[in-house]
Write a structure and sequence with these properties.
The structure is a single chain. The chain has helices at residues 7-10, 24-34, 53-59, and strands at residues 17-19, 38-43, 46-52. A hairpin with a 2-residue loop joins strand 2 (38-43) and strand 3 (46-52). 37% of the residues lie in helices and 27% in strands. The chain is an alpha+beta fold and 60 residues long. The chain contains three helices and three strands; from the N terminus they run H-E-H-E-E-H. The relative contact order is 0.19. The chain has a three-stranded mixed sheet. The protein has one domain: CBS-domain (Roll).
Length: 60
Amino acid sequence: MKMDVRVGQCMTVGVFTLPADKKVADAARLLRKTSIGSIIVMQKGKAKGIITKADILRAI
């Protein structure tokens, strides 16, 4: 395993967000459409948490 790789070299550029009141199906569609693994959940203009593909799979 390469240990000298920096976080910035493997991150996704650009942040995808959804409001906390959106449905899980909306998050799943965005994850699929963008081929990313997580979305920042926003509430009142602030990051409230993160939802991942694994979170969705566990919930359904």
